[in-house]
Each structure stands twice: as structure tokens, then as C-alpha cells.
């Protein structure tokens, strides 16, 4: 939860600087660049999956739990499936889960948060509903939703999105509330600016920075939540590989065939690291004041 | 302010009611039938029908709901379909382990993360900052169960220092109690390090950016102790936030930790009950969780209002 | 704010330390060191206390600890008297006279009498299919005196004793009159039996721990314990059944000595366990403990067509299933039959059809049988540690045969509910689900309910073939071993033609335990017995 924005005037306006070339940019913002590159590589792998890897579904129990070799670069799992193929194809699912959850939660949370910050009645009702959503442990909500409807990728995404919304709402709302207290907003209201315009022109741009940063963290968290749901047996359907469910389903073989879990685990960790670096970098770059809030 | 507090307290009642109704009907609409599960694998359809009738599950939903509400108002959370024991007794049996795990996890997370956050803020934007925060993120990036297995393998099996699993109540001795909580707390606590470290770093940066701090620094007067004190003062809001988020997230996190380390807590009780469709347990637990979270949120919001008068209502 | 009060903080810390130390000092210690406690992790937690009311195996294990049975089969499936002292079968095989042996007492101290036995038989027989069949052929059960009673049959049914001594659930345990009079569709709330252990209800934490205490007043038989027969001696003072849902944690706990007995170690862990000091792995019983099966829904297309059902045989390769789930060939066996291979009634009837694995010809076979691409709804239990992988192997085989699959992933609870529905798949029904069953049940055509084809009154899938049922019934009246084998062969042939289910192979689930601490495990297949175990 962000603390209050410091009084105005602590930040000097950026002086006219010479145009920055890409190398200068990279030197000055290493985290964005490294994080961004990692993400690009992973997205690239995900997109290229059908061409650079074999069939993730093909099982051949006779090849069960083989260590990495010429034929199976990352070894095989308990069904004899190629861990390399599953990891590469798993990138697709994990990234889709991460991005979808981040985007959906952000958009929905932003909309509700903006309204809450401005309309007292919407605030009262919506915050109670948010309380209600937060009152139900997210794992239970996920299990209940997944068993209620036809299980599949999109239900898992929905089940992870819903518990994330209240936090975004709170974030947006608090930013809006503090902004409202700013003199320039009060001036705009006094000058007769109508609320929708106010929201769009003045408030919204200021909420974007913290929102973007927060959504990167949510993306990483979503992929890990999916792993947790797969652990409990209610994640993405087991044949479709996602890094989360590869690790969860193979967990019994941790001592016997560690590669089948540690390699996808490494990919997962790299992705989380990359997303976080991107988020931290964006946070420092987009609005230095954010660094003191998140 | 006072009116606000009373208003919020009263507002919790409809929230609880909404949660209760939602959970009750969600459970019954969802596929799954406790009678079928309880009858076992070799039961016939007829058996299942009979059992369902005896459990009162074939009554109209509204009738079941009314009955449940009636009992609720008398303080009766109902009886487990499977074990025939009162839900309140089942919850009481499992409360201590989850509370112990929650507290020790938050403790581990705070003890690890706060120094990291302070260090990162101190050396903001430098390599040290990135590395320290990177470590915090690594704790988050490893799924809890994987961290658990690794810790068990290293510290219990290979080194033999700590037990693999289980919960030892504090009444049976302090050291066994602590011993059993060390590995689970680390496995789960490292997940929250990133979050807490980030917030600590943010609040420290806030402190460091204050004009008077910069003045004092330039004059050579700002000692680490003075800075830390101011950081503490400034951290009231983030700390409160962390506690709130921590409690909210922990129920989800403890489920997996309780499974891996075999701690008989509320998290595992709830997941088992959901998967077995033991409705009364799920309903009772959700209400208990809901009451807890709503109260915690209320306290957070009230403390915000105290701590930052600019947030007006 | 002024400097924090240093001395105040120090005093506080000191006080805390003293308080904690004091707590540790006065904390009550564990029970007396002399008590021998067996800590066992089983395949499920004890959730319900009524072995008549549910067919869950864990309820049967609980039942066998706390209660006793009239008869009990031995290692060769021959029923031996257990609670019964002497018994007599009339020459016309219609009257069974049984007398209870001496020394049988309930845990509340009262003596076991026929007033308890007769309602118990009726309560158990109301729900259990083998018991129902027994009562179907029973004219009346009458008490002669406090300890003697007669079962008088209408026809010379030959499975009376085997049914009363069976190991499969629901186990025919004897309860007090009070509990036996409870409606069979309602659970009993007390677990007071006459068995070698008492149930410590006040220490029961459902989902976590179940505690049994030695029944010092139990009078065991004098014969050695073999399966459910012989003397069931309570060897330890206390049994704690601890439930651990994570198989890896359970295995580590055994290695670390935190538990003594692990009922179902994952077979992949056996090399680790065998390497560990003080741990032994033992195969239980003479025949395989478990077999997997694919169950088809005979009510709706496409599997209402027998030829399409039979085409399924072509795509199933038992090796694939077994290797995936079990891994080590020393523990599994391909069995082209519905009667458990390795049991006395194993036969080759119809096995040619089961052995006809022909993936290349499968697609043609389906088309020739009339399959037009209808969607096949598969209930896929994703949280079940054995059924999940079995289903995945099946799905892959079906996919390679070009079948149109509608895979419904769900948790086991949802599967259990949905498989009971007779509606068409599109309206909440199903076409296929996968499950497992016990090898001992599969050894006896009467107890093997899945081999039945009783149409609407049968088990999920509802295969319908009156001839199968006639053969099962006839088997119950067979008088010689040769006759029994012949009928079993005909039964299996007919059942395979009808495709009552498709077997995916059988395996033996061994037990792992700390041999440096406990000994005396009684090897039983299909259900686990904890009497006889002693601890150093």
C-alpha cells in the first residue's frame, strides 16, 4: 500500500538532456533492459515452440524417467514424455496465464478503483464486495470455481484473477483519493471540469505508473499460483503442460529424477526474475516517486 | 471517525451474509456429492440415493439453507457429514497449528526481509540493491512445495538436524514446537520476502528523501540510528499493510505448506473438506475466515485514517 | 520521540526469556516411556466410523481393528472360524449351526451374544452386495440360545462362510445390538466392538490422526494369524494412524524414523527405501493387491454398441499403464483376464480378445464397428495419484486411434458424483472413467462386483447380460473346485465379450516399515491388518 506522495517540489523538472542512444539507455536502465530481454527470449521460445520442440503430449512409458541425453535434452518424465518439449510448450501456457491474469486484473481493478475514488456510493458498495471477495481464501475460490464450471485454461485464469482484483482496487483507489486532495485537482473541479473528463485526463494517467508496475508482480504471482493449484490437483488440465503443473505433477520424482522438475523450475524462476526486474526498472523509470511507494 | 468505525462494523454484517449465502449455494450448485464420496467406490446408485436422503441433502436448497441459518444463530456451526463431529470441535482442533505457522512464517519473513529492504534502500539503484532484491525475489520464485522438499532433503534427511514433518503442540514442550516449525516457516516465509523487502525499501527511500534528512546528511549529522528510527516511524503504514496482506495470503499459502510438512491445520482441513464436499465444514470455516479477514481489513483501514490524515472519508 | 528506553527493552527481553524457559520446564512430558506406540501412515485418513455403511477400504481397516468377524479367510481363501467356536453344516447344506467361542466381550465389558450377532448380520447384509446375495438365499436366522444360532437357507448356497469371512469391504463385522439396530443408511456414532483394539474417540482428529488402544481383555484364538484367521494378538499398546497427504513426506518420515509403518509407499521410492538402514519392504499376501480398470458406459452411444466396445481392446496395451503407474516390472503383471491372475480361479477364457493389442488396426476396427466420430466424454480425475496417470495413458491411446475425445478434467469428488448419473453424456453423464479395485475382490466372482452385468441394478456403467448374472449365481452353488473353475472360465469369457470393463493390468503394492523397530506384520492382500505387530 503506497504511503502518501511527498509534498510537491521535491523533484526538479528534468533538464534538457541530449537525446539518448540505445547504449546510453541500456547503461542507465540496466534492469529494464535485462528484464525486458529475458522476457523477450521467453516469449520468443513460447512462440517458436512448435518449430523448436517435439510433441509435448506423446507418451512412451518405456522411456520413463530417463536422464538428459542426446535424444531427450532435458530427459523424460514418468510418462516417458520429453521434458524439453513440455518445458518449451509450457512456456506458452505459463506466459498466457501470467499476462492474462495481469491484464484482466489490472483493467477490472482500475475501472472499479477509479469509480470508487470518486463516487461515494460506489465506493461503499464496491469496497464491501471487495471485502467479501478477500474474505474467501483464494485457493478455495479457485477450487470452487474450477469444479463448478468446465475445467480448462480460462477457468483457471478467472479463478486466479478474481482474488487479485481487490488489491488493485485498493491501490488505484488510494492513488485516486490522494490525487483528489491535490490542489490542481481541486482547481479543476472548481473550474467546472466534469468528472468523467477529470478521470480520463488527469487522474488516469497518474494511476498508470503504479498499476503497470503492480501488474508485472501480479503476472509472476499468477504463474506461481497456478503451480500451487496444480499441486492440489485443480490447476490447468494435466496433459497441457505449464511450468507450474510440470513441477507439481512431477514432484514425487524430485529425488529420483530431479531434472524433470528442476529444469522447468529454473525456467519458472528466470521468468519470475525477469518480470520482477522489468517491474522494478519500470517503477524507477516511469516515476521516481513510485520507488518510495512500492 | 467514530461514526465511520461504527458504520464499518455494521457494514460487516451484510458482507458476512453475502459470503455465507454465496458459499452455501456455490457448494451445492457445484458438481460433487458428499453422499457419493462417502459411500465409497463400490457403492451402487441406490446406496448413494439412500445416504443422501438420510443426510437431508435431497431437501430443497432453500430449506437446507434456512435450517443452516437457524442453527447458526444458535451458535451451532453444524456437524461434519463424514465424521459426525461438530464443526466447532474440528476447527478448535486445528486452530493452534495454523496460527503457530502463520505467526512464525510472518516472523521469518520479516526478520529476513526487513534488513534486505533497508540495505537495498541504503544502496538504492546500485548493484548491491539489485542483487539483494534479486535474492528476495528468488525466494518468491521457487514454488513453496519445491522449497519444502529441498529443505527437507537437506536439513532432515542429509543433515538430520530437523524433523521431516508433523506438528508438536506447545504444551508438549517448547523446543519440539519450535523445531517442527522451522522448516515450514522458512519454506513459506521466503515466499513473502520479496513483498516485505520491497515495501521496506520503499519506506526507507521515503525516509531518506526527506529534506531534513538530506540536510542532516550534508551536514554529517545523520547517524544510522537516527535514520532507522525515522524509518520505523514511517513504516507504520507499510507494516500494517504487510500484516493485512500476510494474513490474507497466508491461508492460501499454508494449505500447501501444511500438506508438504503434514501440519494438521485449518488450511488443509478446508481443502480436504472442499474436495470431499463436506459442506458443513466448508461453510463453517469460510464464515470463520471471513470474520477474521473483515475485521483485519477494518483495522487496517482505521489505522490508515489515523496515520495519514490526508486520506479522508 | 526520544531515545528508546534501552533498559526497559532489556528488561522486557529478559522477562520473555524467563517466561519461555519456564514454559519449557513445566510443560507436561509425553506419556510414560514404556508405552509401545505403532505410528502408521495408511492410504487414506479414517473419516467415517461405520464399516457397514461405507465401502471405503480405510473404514474396513478401522473395522477390523475395533471389531471382530464370525469367520475369516486364511491365506488360501479358505474361511476359518474366528468368533465362531464350533460350527456344523447340515448334510443337505441348508442349515448352518454356529456357536460363539468363549471369552468374547464388547469393549464396554458386556458379553457378546446372539442378540448382537443376528442384527449385525442383517445390518451388514442390507447394503453389501455379497451379503445381500447371502440373505437372498436365506430363509431365516434364528437364535438357539445366548451363544448358538442357525442360518437356514432356502437353497444350498455354497458361499456362506466365504462371505462371512471375506476381506473386501464392507467387512462383515459384528456390532452390539444397539448399533446393529441403527438403520443401515445412517452412520453409527459409537465405535464399540469386540476386537483386539479399542477406538480412542476423544483423541480422534479427523483428517490427521486416529488412535487405537490395546484391548487387554481380548481373547485371541490359539492358531497362528493368517490373513483374517487365527489369533489376532494386539502387539502394541497404542496405534496411531497418521494421515499424510503428501507421499514424499510420508516416505521421508519413514526414513527419518518419525513413523514406523507406511502402507502404500510409491513404488518409485522403493530403491530409496531399500537403501535406507533399518527399513524393509515386504510384499503382502499371495496375489496382487490392485488392478486398474477402464469402465465404459453401456447406456449411451458410442459404447452402447458392443462392437465398438470391443474395438477398445485393440488400443489398450497394459504394459504402458503399468509402467507409468508402477514403474518397476518386479511389482506388476499383465493379466489378460478379469479374474485376478495368480488367484486359484485364474483362467484363459476370452483372453485372446484382451491380448489383441493392435494400434494400427484400431482406427479401421472402430470404423467397421460403426463409430462415426461421436464425442466420447472422459471423466478425468486430476487429483488422484493413481487414476490421474492411468487416465492420461488411456487418453493418449484413444487419441492415437483417432477417436473424438471430450476430456472433462475434474477432481475425484466430481467424478464420483458424475459417474452415478445415467443421463446422456451431454446432459451431465459420461462415457468413460478409470478406477482401480482390489485384487482379492477380483479373485472371487461373487465378491467381484465389477464383473457383474446386472443392468440397471448394477454398478456404474450398467453392463447388461443376464447370462453373466446366471453364471455368477451358479458359481455360488458349485460344489467342486473343477466346477468352480469351469463356471469361472465361462463367466470370464462372456464378460469379456460384453466388455464389462477393460483391465489395465494388476500390481502388488508392498508395505514399507522400520524393521529395526517393528516385526510381526501379518501379510494380507487387499486390506491391511495391524494386529500381531510388536515393537521393540
Rg of chain B, rounded, reads 24 Å
User: What's the total number of strands of chain B?
Assistant: 0
The helix count of chain A comes to 10
Query: How would the global form of chain A be characterised?
Result: flat
Number of strands of chain A: 0
> What fraction strand of chain A?
under 5%
Helix content of chain A: 55-70%
By DSSP (H or I, 4+ residues per run), the number of helices of chain B equals: 13
Low-confidence blocks of residues of chain B: none
What is the global morphology of chain B? globular
> Biggest β-sheet of chain A: count, sense, barrel?
none
Strand content of chain B: under 5%
Gap between N and C termini of chain A: 7 Å
Secondary-structure element string of chain A: HHHHHHHHHH
State the distance separating the first and last CA atoms of chain B: 9 Å
Protein structure class of chain B = mainly alpha
Order of helices and strands of chain B: HHHHHHHHHHHHH
Please state the oligomeric state of the protein chains shown. heterotrimer
Describe this structure in words.
- The complex is a heterotrimer of chains A (294), B (313) and C (536).
- Chain A is built from ten helices and no strands.
- Chain A has 294 residues and is mainly alpha-helical.
- The N terminus of chain A is likely disordered.
- In chain B, helix 5 packs across helix 11 and helix 11 runs antiparallel to helix 13.
- Chain B is globular.
- The N and C termini of chain B lie close together (9 Å).
- The model of chain B has no long low-confidence stretch (mean pLDDT 80).
- In chain C, helix 3 crosses helix 4 and helix 10 packs antiparallel against helix 13.
- The N terminus of chain C is likely disordered.
- Chains in contact: A-B, A-C, B-C.
- At the A-C interface, loops of A face helix 10, helix 13 and strand 18 of C.
Amino acid at each position: 500500500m503506497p504511503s502518501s506522495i511527498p509534498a510537491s517540489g521535491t523533484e526538479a523538472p528534468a533538464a534538457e538532456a541530449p537525446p539518448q542512444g540505445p547504449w546510453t539507455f541500456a547503461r542507465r536502465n540496466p534492469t529494464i533492459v535485462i528484464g525486458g530481454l529475458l522476457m523477450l527470449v521467453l516469449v520468443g521460445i513460447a512462440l517458436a515452440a512448435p518449430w523448436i520442440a517435439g510433441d509435448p503430449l506423446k507418451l512412451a512409458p518405456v522411456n520413463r524417467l530417463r536422464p538428459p541425453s542426446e535424444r531427450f535434452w532435458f530427459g523424460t518424465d514418468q510418462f516417458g514424455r520429453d521434458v524439453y518439449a513440455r518445458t518449451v510448450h509450457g512456456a506458452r501456457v505459463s506466459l498466457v496465464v501470467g499476462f492474462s491474469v495481469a491484464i484482466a486484473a489490472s483493467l477490472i481493478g482500475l475501472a472499479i478503483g477509479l469509480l470508487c475514488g470518486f463516487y461515494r456510493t460506489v465506493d461503499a458498495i464496491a469496497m464491501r464486495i471487495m471485502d467479501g471477495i478477500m474474505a474467501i481464501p483464494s485457493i478455495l475460490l479457485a477450487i470452487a470455481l474450477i469444479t463448478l464450471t468446465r475445467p480448462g485454461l480460462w477457468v483457471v485464469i478467472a479463478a486466479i484473477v478474481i482474488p487479485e482484483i481487490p488489491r488493485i482496487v485498493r491501490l488505484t483507489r488510494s492513488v485516486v483519493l490522494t490525487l483528489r486532495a491535490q490542489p490542481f485537482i481541486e482547481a479543476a473541479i472548481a473550474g467546472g471540469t466534469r468528472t468523467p473528463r477529470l478521470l480520463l485526463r488527469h487522474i488516469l494517467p497518474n494511476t498508470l505508473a503504479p498499476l503497470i508496475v503492480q501488474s508485472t508482480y501480479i503476472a509472476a504471482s499468477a504463474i506461481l499460483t497456478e503451480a500451487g493449484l496444480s499441486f492440489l490437483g485443480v490447476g490447468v488440465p494435466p496433459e497441457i503442460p505449464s511450468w507450474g503443473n510440470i513441477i507439481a505433477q512431477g514432484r514425487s520424482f524430485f529425488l529420483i529424477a530431479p531434472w524433470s522438475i528442476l529444469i522447468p523450475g529454473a525456467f519458472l524462476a528466470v521468468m519470475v526474475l525477469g518480470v520482477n526486474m522489468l517491474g522494478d526498472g519500470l517503477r524507477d523509470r516511469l516515476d521516481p516517486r513510485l520507488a518510495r511507494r512500492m | 471517525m467514530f461514526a465511520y468505525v461504527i458504520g464499518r462494523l455494521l457494514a460487516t454484517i451484510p458482507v458476512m451474509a453475502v459470503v455465507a449465502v454465496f458459499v452455501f449455494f456455490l457448494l451445492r450448485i457445484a458438481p460433487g456429492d458428499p453422499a457419493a464420496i462417502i459411500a465409497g467406490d463400490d457403492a451402487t446408485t441406490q446406496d448413494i440415493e439412500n445416504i443422501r436422503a438420510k443426510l437431508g441433502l435431497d431437501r430443497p436448497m432453500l430449506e437446507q439453507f434456512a435450517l443452516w441459518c437457524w442453527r447458526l444463530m444458535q451458535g451451532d456451526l453444524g456437524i461434519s457429514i463424514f465424521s459426525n463431529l461438530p464443526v466447532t470441535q474440528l476447527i478448535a482442533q486445528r486452530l493452534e497449528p495454523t496460527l503457530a505457522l502463520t505467526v512464525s512464517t510472518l516472523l521469518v519473513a520479516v526478520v529476513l526481509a526487513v534488513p534486505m529492504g533497508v540495505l537495498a534502500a541504503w544502496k538504492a539503484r546500485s548493484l548491491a540493491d539489485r542483487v539483494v532484491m534479486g535474492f528476495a525475489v528468488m525466494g518468491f520464485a521457487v514454488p513453496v512445495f519445491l522449497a519444502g522438499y529441498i529443505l527437507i532433503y537437506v536439513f532432515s534427511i542429509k543433515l538430520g538436524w530437523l524433523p521431516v514433518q508433523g506438528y508438536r503442540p506447545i504444551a508438549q514442550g517448547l523446543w519440539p514446537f519450535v523445531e517442527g516449525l522451522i522448516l515450514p516457516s522458512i519454506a513459506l516465509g521466503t515466499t513473502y520476502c520479496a513483498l516485505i523487502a520491497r515495501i521496506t525499501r520503499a519506506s526507507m527511500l521515503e525516509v531518506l528523501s526527506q529534506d531534513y534528512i538530506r540536510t542532516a546528511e550534508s551536514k554529517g549529522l545523520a547517524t544510522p540510528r537516527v535514520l532507522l528510527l525515522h524509518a520505523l516511524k514511517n513504516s507504520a503504514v507499510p507494516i500494517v499493510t504487510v500484516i493485512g496482506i500476510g494474513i490474507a495470503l497466508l491461508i492460501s499459502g499454508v494449505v500447501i505448506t501444511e500438506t508438504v510438512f503434514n501440519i494438521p491445520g485449518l488450511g488443509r482441513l478446508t481443502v480436504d473438506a472442499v474436495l470431499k464436499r463436506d459442506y458443513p465444514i466448508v461453510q463453517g470455516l469460510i464464515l470463520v475466515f471471513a470474520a477474521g479477514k473483515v475485521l483485519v481489513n477494518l483495522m487496517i483501514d482505521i489505522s490508515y485514517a489515523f496515520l495519514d490524515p490526508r486520506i479522508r472519508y | 520521540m526520544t531515545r528508546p528506553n534501552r533498559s526497559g527493552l532489556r528488561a522486557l527481553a529478559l522477562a520473555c526469556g524467563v517466561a519461555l524457559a519456564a514454559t519449557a520446564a513445566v510443560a507436561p512430558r509425553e506419556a510414560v516411556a514404556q508405552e509401545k506406540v505403532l505410528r502408521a501412515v495408511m492410504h487414506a485418513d479414517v473419516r467415517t466410523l461405520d464399516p457397514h455403511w461405507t465401502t471405503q477400504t480405510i473404514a474396513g481397516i478401522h473395522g477390523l481393528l475395533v471389531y471382530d468377524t464370525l469367520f475369516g479367510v486364511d491365506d488360501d481363501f479358505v474361511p476359518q472360524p474366528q468368533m465362531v467356536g464350533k460350527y456344523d453344516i447340515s448334510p443337505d447344506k441348508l442349515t448352518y449351526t454356529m456357536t460363539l467361542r468363549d471369552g468374547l466381550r464388547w469393549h464396554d465389558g458386556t458379553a457378546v451374544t446372539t442378540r448382537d450377532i443376528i442384527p449385525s448380520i442383517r445390518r451388514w447384509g442390507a447394503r453389501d452386495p455379497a451379503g445381500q446375495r447371502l440373505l437372498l438365499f436365506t430363509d431365516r436366522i434364528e437364535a438357539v440360545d445366548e451363544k448358538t444360532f442357525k442360518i437356514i437357507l432356502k437353497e444350498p448356497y455354497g458361499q456362506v462362510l466365504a462371505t462371512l469371512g471375506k476381506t473386501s469391504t464392507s467387512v462383515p463385522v459384528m456390532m452390539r445390538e444397539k448399533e446393529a439396530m441403527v438403520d443401515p443408511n445412517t452412520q453409527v456414532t459409537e465405535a464399540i466392538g469386540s476386537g483386539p483394539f479399542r477406538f480412542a474417540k476423544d483423541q480422534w482428529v479427523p483428517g490427521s490422526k486416529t488412535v487405537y488402544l490395546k484391548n487387554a481383555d481380548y481373547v485371541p484364538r490359539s492358531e497362528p494369524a493368517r490373513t483374517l484367521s487365527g489369533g489376532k494378538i494386539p502387539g502394541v499398546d497404542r496405534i496411531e494412524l497418521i494421515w499424510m497427504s503428501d507421499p514424499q513426506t510420508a516416505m521421508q518420515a519413514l526414513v527419518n524414523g518419525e513413523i514406523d509403518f507406511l502402507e502404500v509407499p510409491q513404488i518409485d521410492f522403493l530403491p530409496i527405501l531399500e537403501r535406507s538402514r533399518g527399513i524393509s519392504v515386504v510384499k503382502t499376501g499371495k496375489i496382487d493387491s490392485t488392478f486398474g480398470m477402464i469402465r465404459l458406459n453401456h447406456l449411451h452411444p458410442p459404447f452402447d454398441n458392443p462392437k465398438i466396445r470391443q474395438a477398445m481392446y485393440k488400443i489398450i496395451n497394459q504394459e504402458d499403464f503399468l509402467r507409468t503407474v508402477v514403474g518397476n516390472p518386479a511389482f506388476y503383471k499383465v493379466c489378460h483376464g478379469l479374474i485376478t491372475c495368480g488367484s486359484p480361479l485364474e483362467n484363459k477364457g476370452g483372453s485372446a480378445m484382451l491380448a489383441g493389442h493392435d494400434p494400427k488396426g484400431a482406427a479401421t476396427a472402430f470404423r467397421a464397428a460403426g463409430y462415426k466420430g461421436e464425442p466420447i466424454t472422459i471423466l478425468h480425475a486430476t487429483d488422484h495419484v493413481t487414476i490421474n496417470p492411468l487416465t492420461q495413458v488411456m487418453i493418449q491411446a484413444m487419441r492415437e486411434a483417432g477417436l473424438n475425445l471430450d476430456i472433462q478434467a475434474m477432481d475425484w469428488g466430481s467424478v464420483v458424483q458424475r459417474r452415478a448419473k445415467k443421463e446422456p453424456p451431454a446432459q451431465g453423464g459420461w462415457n468413460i472413467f478409470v478406477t482401480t479395485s482390489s485384487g482379492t475382490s477380483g479373485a472371487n466372482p461373487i465378491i467381484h462386483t465389477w464383473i457383474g452385468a446386472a443392468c440397471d441394478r448394477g454398478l456404474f456403467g450398467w453392463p447388461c447380460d443376464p447370462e453373466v448374472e446366471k453364471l455368477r449365481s451358479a458359481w455360488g452353488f458349485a460344489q467342486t473346485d473343477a466346477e468352480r473353475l469351469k463356471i469361472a472360465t465361462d463367466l470370464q469369457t462372456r464378460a469379456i465379450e460384453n466388455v464389462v470393463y477393460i483391465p489395465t493390468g494388476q500390481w502388488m503394492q508392498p508395505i514399507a516399515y522400520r524393521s529395526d523397530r517393528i516385526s510381526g506384520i501379518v501379510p494380507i492382500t487387499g486390506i491391511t491388518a495391524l494386529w500381531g505387530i510388536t515393537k521393540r
